[in-house]
């Protein structure tokens, strides 16, 4: 399941138990400055297939015009 965030580019992928398995959000510098709309960070849980998750995020983002 995909959970949408507050901003256009932010969303999360959760498993059937409701645990977050991957999260896409705007990249932020340690100083707090948020980079451009097209600069994103993807955090994936270690036990999840990373290639499949990246593919799902890319396809979902393009289909829904969120990337």
UniProtKB/TrEMBL annotation:
Residue ranges that the Swiss-Prot or TrEMBL entry lists as coiled coil: none
Domain of life where this protein originates: Eukaryota
InterPro entries: LOR, LOR_sf, Tubby-like_C
Similarity-based family: Belongs to the LOR family.
The protein, known as: Tubby C-terminal domain-containing protein
Organism whose genome encodes this protein: Gossypium barbadense (Sea Island cotton)
């Amino acid at each position: 399941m995909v959970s949408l965030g507050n901003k256009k580019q932010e969303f999360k992928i959760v498993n059937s138990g409701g645990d977050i398995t991957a999260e896409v959000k705007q990249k932020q510098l340690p100083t707090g400055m948020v980079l451009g709309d097209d600069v994103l960070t993807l955090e994936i849980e270690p036990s999840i297939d990373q290639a499949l998750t990246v593919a799902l995020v890319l396809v979902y983002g393009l289909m829904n015009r969120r990337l």
